């Protein structure tokens, strides 16, 4: 296992390269060449610096669970990997992936989702995504999600990918849902912070009943909890058309759907 992981986690070749746009206050947009790579420990100081920058600029500090340097370092070895978007040696964005222990109640989200014990070792986490404010709008997080999920699949070890996301982080909710995740639970994590727990089965994606959906206001947590407890799943996030130019939590709606009966019965 160790040899195959080292091969997959090679930092020698870029996973993707291209051009993105940097937003400048005075000069508008500037083209920037970038590469996506799997990062090694030499990037830990830049990872921690970017995490600090993102947290300092959050309107709600509880929307992102900060990691210590020691815990972040765990993601840079056999416990996980970190994808980085680089321009030269400068880190523009990163996405963490983590492989939790089967008895880790904090980070093995399969426990929260009541997975059978026999498959808890098959769970991987998308942990944290940070994109420098000057490079938002380039779909970087979605691109990193795509590569992260592909790498997890290529490893052939994990069948399930989970993540948590704050109900107030509508940007990341939308990206996760568009990346194939489904909201399965609303719970308190990390010392009482409200989080959606999302899940993706890498081999058996869920299918939903056509025409059977219901919108719920993003901040109506009582109704959402009721829906999730009665066999509905969060599948999309939309903004009211009349308020699309000035979105706020009250005009955002989660779409809840029911799984098709044939698959649900099986």
Describe the structure in your own words.
- Helix content is 26%, strand content 36%.
- The chain has helices at residues 2-8, 44-56, 69-74, 109-112, 140-155, 170-178, 221-229, 261-265; strands at residues 16-24, 28-38, 80-87, 90-98, 123-131, 160-165, 182-189, 193-201, 208-217, 232-239, 252-259.
- The chain is α+β, with helices and mostly antiparallel strands and 266 residues long.
- The two termini are 32 Å apart.
- The protein is globular and about 50 Å long.
- The protein has an eight-stranded mixed β-sheet with strand order 1-2-3-4-5-6-8-7. The protein has a three-stranded antiparallel β-sheet with strand order 9-11-10.
- The chain folds into two domains: 2-205, Aminopeptidase (3-Layer(aba) Sandwich), CATH 3.40.630.30; 206-266, no CATH class.
Topology:
Elements: H1 2-8, E1 16-24, E2 28-38, H2 44-56, H3 69-74, E3 80-87, E4 90-98, H4 109-112, E5 123-131, H5 140-155, E6 160-165, H6 170-178, E7 182-189, E8 193-201, E9 208-217, H7 221-229, E10 232-239, E11 252-259, H8 261-265
Parallel strand pairs: 5-6
Antiparallel strand pairs: 1-2, 2-3, 3-4, 4-5, 6-8, 7-8, 9-11, 10-11
């Amino acid at each position: 296992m160790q040899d195959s992981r080292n091969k997959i986690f090679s930092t020698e070749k870029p996973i993707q390269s291209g051009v993105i746009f940097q937003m400048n206050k005075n000069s508008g947009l500037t083209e920037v060449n970038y590469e996506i790579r799997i990062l090694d420990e030499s990037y830990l100081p830049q990872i921690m610096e970017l995490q600090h920058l993102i947290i300092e600029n959050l309107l709600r500090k509880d929307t992102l669970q900060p990691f210590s340097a020691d815990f972040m370092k765990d993601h840079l070895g056999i416990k996980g990997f970190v994808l980085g978007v680089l321009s030269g040696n400068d880190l523009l964005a990163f996405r963490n992936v983590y492989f939790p222990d089967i008895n880790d109640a904090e980070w093995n989200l399969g426990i929260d989702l009541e997975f059978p014990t026999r498959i808890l070792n098959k769970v991987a986490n998308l942990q944290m995504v940070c994109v420098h404010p000057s490079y938002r709008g380039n779909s970087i997080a979605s691109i990193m999600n795509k590569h992260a999920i592909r790498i997890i699949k290529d490893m052939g070890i994990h069948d399930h990918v989970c993540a948590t996301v704050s109900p107030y982080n509508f940007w990341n909710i939308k990206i996760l849902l568009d990346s194939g995740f489904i909201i399965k639970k609303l719970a308190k994590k990390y010392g009482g912070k409200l989080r959606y727990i999302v899940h993706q089965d890498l081999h058996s994606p869920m299918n939903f009943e056509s025409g059977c959906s219901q919108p719920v206001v993003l901040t109506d947590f009582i109704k959402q909890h009721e829906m999730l407890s009665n066999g509905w799943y969060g599948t999309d996030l939309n903004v009211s058309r009349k308020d699309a130019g000035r979105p706020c939590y009250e005009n955002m709606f989660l779409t809840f759907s029911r799984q098709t009966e044939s698959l649900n019965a099986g």
